[in-house]
Amino acid sequence: MNIESNSQNLEAMVTSTGSLGLERRSYDRLYWNWRGAPVRDVDHLVSGLSRMASIAEHEGRTRTVFRGLFTKSAYKDLEMRHKDLPEGTEAEVSLKIDSTWREDPYWLIVLGTNAPTRQAVMSSRDFTQELSYRVIPNYAQSEDDKISIKKSLDSMLRRGYVVHSQIEDSMAESLLGLWSGAFEWTESGIHDLQQRLQAQRNLPPHLRQVWFTGVEHDGKFVTAATAERIDFRRERNPIMLVENTEWFTDPQYRKKGLMSGAVTNLNSQILNDLGPEAVIYAECNWMTRAFGVGRSAGMIMPETFPWNSTAQVLRQNVAVGDGLEPSGLRDFVFMYLPRKEIFRSYRGKEVSEVVRKTK
Beta-carbon neighbour count of residue 303 at 10 Å? Predict the structure, then answer.
């Protein structure tokens, strides 16, 4: 099987979602975003995964990641065929994606394979047990528990913060100060993001690909997050996956609700442009318990089913400069914004008002 590879060297680019096809990415990863229609033929996929494993071994890569959409029957078949996958391959994420277009649901599946040198801090079973009481019970059970995106923004504005959706020239240096140490962003990467944000302002909202929220205080960004989109094919309309990422707050400004406010603001911008069909997700650093921010923005872990044992954790995926020991690669809890939370907490009128108040 031929795995189509992108000709552009994406390791030199700042990207979270990547592009469709096979990519060489940072931290010795070989990444495959499925380019075709949802997987129905598991034999075809197994052949491709074997080929990817061979490429990774030849190049000395220590992690491979496959991401694609599956029909329910194909996903069950994949679980049954686990022994035919490259050694060490695990289904790290499984997310059921429902549609408002009366199509059958699909499953977003992330398969990860790590070399023995990339060992997670816990086994999949231990992660599942830990997350079962740390993350899963978060989902608001009543109207009184729901988040208020408008109150979140108004709270920041009342305290003298300014919330931005663009990166002005005068603010670029402070953003670099936030992201360079934690995520290894460079001046050119900040400039590229700045240009992308400005260029797409003239595009129809449904064609936009990247979003940004920066919280300013005393003339500098003290909190920031960004989001990036990738589309996966399906029979009717593509599934729009949007990763809400690069969450960071200046240590002097933590525990003020700024990161949660930035994430809800970013979600609002995305939903204002793409509507409720957008699948917004985040990969939350386990070491910093970043899933708490996800929870406060209405995100939850995907539901698991009796016929799978997915931990919903990307294992030893990338390194983050979070200041914690031991330093190095981190495990990331996968969370997403469920549609029922969108319709309950991110209603159209409130979303529009939040976007209007964002500079």
Answer: 11
Query: What pLDDT sits at residue 11?
Result: 37
Q: Which residues of 147-177 are buried (b: 16+ CB within 10 A; e: fewer)?
A: bebbebbebbeeeebebbbebeeebbebbbe
Q: Are 131 and 312 in contact (CB under 8 A)?
A: yes
The pLDDT confidence band at residue 139, using thresholds 50, 70 and 90, is: very low
Q: How far is CA 264 from the centre of its chain?
A: 14
Q: How many helices (H) and strands (E) does the chain have?
A: 10, 12
Query: Which residues, in sequence order, are CB contacts of 157 under 8 Å at separation 6+?
Result: 163, 357
Give the DSSP H/E element, type plus range, for residue 118: none
The answer to whether 242 touches 208, Cβ cutoff 8 Å, is no
Burial of residue 301 (CB within 10 Å: 0-12, 13-18, 19+) is: buried
pLDDT tens readout for residues 82-116: 899 999 999 999 999 876 555 678 999 999 999 99
The edge-to-edge listing of strands for the beta sheet with 29-33 is: 21-25, 29-33, 63-70, 106-114, 89-97
37 vs 69, 71, 90, 110, 325, CA distance in Å?
A: 8, 10, 22, 16, 42
Per-residue model confidence (pLDDT) at position 310: 83
Residues in the chain: 359
Helix (H/G/I), strand (E/B), else coil: 181: helix
Q: Name which of 314, 285, 282, 301 is nearest 118 in CA terms.
A: 314
Distance, in Å, from the CA atom of 134 to the CA atom of 291, rounded to the nearest integer, reads 9
- How far is the C-alpha of 40 from the C-alpha of 42, rounded, in Å? 6
Question: Using CA atoms, how far apart are residues 102 and 319, in angstroms rounded to an integer?
Answer: 40
What region does 130 belong to: left with phi over 0, alpha with psi -120 to 50, or beta? alpha
Which amino acid would we find at residue 174? S
d(CA 264, CA 24): 32
Instruction: Please report the domains of the chain, with CATH numbers, ordered by start residue.
Output: 10-122 (3.40.630), 134-357 (3.40.630.30)
CA distance 321 to 28: 17
